[in-house]
Specification:
The structure holds 2 protein chains of 2 kinds.
Chain A lengths: L1 H22 L1 H36 L4 H26 L3 H34 L1
Helix pairs in contact in A: 1-2, 2-3, 3-4
Chain B lengths: L2 H23 L3 H34 L3
Classes of the chains: A mainly alpha, B mainly alpha.
């Protein structure tokens, strides 16, 4: 039961953060970053297993790996950006968090351009 | 699950808070500020190490290069 471990870990970290917040807000923020990273690292190997299954399915369905790679990259960018933005927002820097999210959106758009072009190509082939 | 890292960081924070208030009562304001700075630097060192691990793992899993 990993969920019990994760919930217990989160509760312990929350108690420590609440203790620290009044005296040392900067250390409390670092504790919350560390707790988030540890929880994510804990479930990351399971995410890796899911990604392997998705890749297997894609090769069996003869889908071009370019598209799956782009989608996986987009998911990775979204996760990292969300992580950073939430930490910024937690420490009171809402404007910085919005900028991080904006940058992530731009990068995702850049990665999605080949897919959009492929869709347009297919559309033109159908029409013409 | 590295719970000990969280306890380590929180321990440094609590120790720094206690030292800060002690030094403040003793009238050593500047040393108290140095203690805070040192605590933040030490903890930042650990957290940046951890963040580097996170980023490289995410890069590996999602094939971000």
């Amino acid at each position: 039961m990993e969920i019990l471990q994760i919930v217990g870990f989160g509760l312990v970290a929350a108690v420590l953060i609440v203790i620290l917040r009044h005296q040392k807000p900067e250390v409390a923020m670092l504790v919350s970053i560390a707790a988030g990273v540890v929880i994510f690292l804990f479930v990351l190997d399971k995410v890796a297993a899911v990604v392997t299954v998705l890749k297997d399915l894609a090769t069996r369905a003869n889908i071009n790996m370019l598209y799956l790679g782009a989608i996986l990259k987009i998911v990775g960018i979204a996760y990292i950006a969300d992580f950073g933005a939430q930490i910024c927002r937690d420490s009171g820097e809402g404007a910085l968090a919005s900028k991080i999210e904006f940058a992530a959106k731009v990068l995702i758009l850049v990665l999605a351009v080949p897919i959009v072009m492929a869709v347009l190509d297919t559309l033109l082939k159908i029409l013409g | 699950m590295s719970v000990d890292l969280i306890f380590k960081i929180a321990g440094v924070g609590i120790l720094a808070a206690v030292l800060h208030s002690l030094l403040k009562h003793a009238g050593r304001e500047e040393v108290a500020n140095l203690v805070t700075l040192a605590a933040v630097a030490i903890v930042l060192f650990w957290v940046i190490d951890l963040l580097g691990t996170l980023f490289s793992e995410v890069k590996n899993v999602f094939k971000l290069f």
